[in-house]
Amino acid sequence: MAREASCLTKITAEVAVGGAVGGAVGAVYGTYEAIRFRVPGLMKIRYIGQTTLGSAAIFGLFLGAGSLIHCGK
């Protein structure tokens, strides 16, 4: 008989998936904006990193919150 994953395990998995997807989207969007706005030199790396981490954090947070709400039902 297979055990169902606990609520915490589901939430953790959703946060990880959200972080990965958000990071990928943030990296693509950050690169696009850095090129579009002609960010100079090494500031591009910083700009892309900030966009990547910001997107990963926000998307992971929202996916985790949605999983928490769904888990409570």
- Percent helix range: over 70%
Separation, N- and C-terminal Cα atoms: 23 Å
Mean pLDDT: 92
Largest sheet: none
Report the strand count. Answer: 0
Number of H- or I-type helical stretches:
2
What pattern of helices and strands is seen along the backbone? Answer: HH
Pfam families: Romo1 (PF10247)
Subcellular location: Membrane
Transmembrane segments: 12-32, 52-71
InterPro entries: Romo1/Mgr2
Question: What would your notes on this structure say?
Answer:
It is built from two helices and no strands. The chain is mostly helical. Helix 1 (7-36) packs antiparallel against helix 2 (43-71). The radius of gyration is 16 Å and the shape is rod-shaped.
Secondary-structure blueprint of this entry?
Blueprint: H1 7-36, H2 43-71
Helix pairs in contact: 1-2
Output the keywords:
73 residues; mainly alpha; 2 helices; rod-shaped; transmembrane helix; Reactive oxygen species modulator 1; transmembrane; membrane; Romo1/Mgr2
What's the quick description here?
The protein has two helices and no strands. It has helices at 7-36, 43-71.
